[in-house]
Each structure stands twice: as C-alpha cells, then as structure tokens.
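Curious: can you check?
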Amino acid sequence: MMTANRQDTPAGTATKDAAGPNTRCGFIALAGAPNAGKSTLLNRLIGTKISIVTPKIQTTRSRITGIAVEGKVQTIYIDTPGIFAPRRRLDRAMVAAAWSGMADADVTVVLVDAKASAGKRGVDKDTRSIVEGLKKKRRQAVLAVNKIDLVPRPALLGLAAALNDEGVFTETFMISALSGDGVVDLKTHLQDNLPEGPWLYPEDQISDIPMRMLAAEITREQAFLQLHQELPYAVAVETESWEQRGDGSVRIGQVITVRRGSQKAMVLGKGGSRIKSIGATARAELERFMECKVHLFIHVKVRADWIDRPEHYRALGLDFDA
C-alpha cells in the first residue's frame, strides 16, 4: 500500500533509501505544446497515474514529478506545462515553469502531436516556438513524435524530417503514449543517457507531489472533463483540510474557486447534480490511488481575483512575477 495517508506525504513515499555501485540517476523534462501528450507519457513511463489527463489544452498548470526505478537506474521525470503564446499572468507563469523544468533537466524530450501537425500541414506554431527557444538557449533535446497511430506514415516521416532539419534534436522516436508503442525504446535511450550517481529518492517513491496537491489535481481533472467550453479555465481547486480517521479512512475538504456567480451555478449544476458528479468520480479515483476509504467534501466559492493572487501561484509552485 502506498503511504499516502498524511497530508504532507509525497505520493508513494517509501521509507527505504536505495543506492549502490554503478547506479544512475537524473532528471528528464517532458516538454511540448499544449495537449501534445506529456501527461499521458509520464503516466505510461511511471506505470501509474500521477498526472491528470484531459482532452482540453493547458490542463497541466505546474511541474509534476514522477519517479521510476528499473535495475540500477532511477529516472526522475518532470511533466511541464504546455508551451504556447501566453496571454495572461497564469499563462506566463506556466510557460516559465516549463522552460525552468527544461533548464533543470539532464535530458529534455520534446513531444510533438503528429495529428495536430499533420492537420496544419507542417510544424505547428507552438512547437516552432519551442524549437526557436532551444536554438536561442543552445540546448539540444530528444524528439518524440506522438500519436503516430493517428497519422499516415508518409506524413510522419515528413514531419520528423522537417524537425530534424532544425539541428536541435539528437535522436528521434516515433511513439504512441496512449498505447505504449515505441515508449520502451524511448525510455531505454533516456536511461542510458543519465549520469552515474546515487539515487535521490527512496526506492519505491513514485512522485514528490504532496498528497494534498494530488487530491486537488484529481478533482480539477474531473472539473475539466465534466465542465464545458471555457469554464474549466476559470476554476481553481485547493485542498483545505485533511483528516486521517481512526478507521483508516481519510476525510478531505476541498474548495473549488471560480471568478463569477454564474460560473458557480454551472459548477454546482441543477440541484447540485454537477458538483455531486465531480465529487463522486474524484472520490473513486482517490480511493483507487490511496487504497483506503475517502470522504470527500467539496464547496464552491466565488473569488473574482483568484487568478491574480500570489498565494495561488505559490501553491502551484509557479512564479507570480514570471
């Protein structure tokens, strides 16, 4: 059972350290445009779900760290927010976090959505900006062309050739993060290129995300999936209370914050039906992950300025002044 009982315990923390002769350990940044498949790939590489996934772009707002151990190698993956042209303060903070994650990594993997690029008949503008950013910073990366099962082979080869002509990619892999096709080859390459050194985390820890944050992310995922149009982007979720009960269950209190009263009505739904659905699905996901009974209580409040409050950015590990 994962030791996810305390509010300040990182997901999957174990008590045993592991290191030895000839061990390798390093950081891999997963970067790309919004909805390129970074979170899906992270979950595939770790072997369990630690990063939320939705069809909507800009789902990931902060850096999510996943940890995997195979043999003598401990790989620390950083799932970064999607890189795009920012318009708001939150956008700028998310993009800055993505570039910071790449700067801190031993190896960067740039994911490219093959389906999106094929639809635009070339490299999409967000991926183009990432390539230009890598050139400016004189950094190289590994290219992972994702969603290959959705695009004809000639288009895939053309896309890979166009990107490789940019001179910033050392290796190219064709993958499907969803099905797992090609992911083992990518993972092996990444592990082989990590530096030798002791492991930085206990052997069976899978993330350094505090459980309070993971619980909030799971609820936010359901808000993204169940709410429509632009409403999810006006939503923030915070875990305000965490009580470990004597029977082994956990009572979690959360607040969903929106910017307007009309948005609150939509989150609640008719007769409270929408918030009940969000809560029930999030609770089931938490119980699956924590392997214990969860009592989840969610309240909705209106705060027009939440997107411009520094404490919200600190909670997400983002730079308010980016």
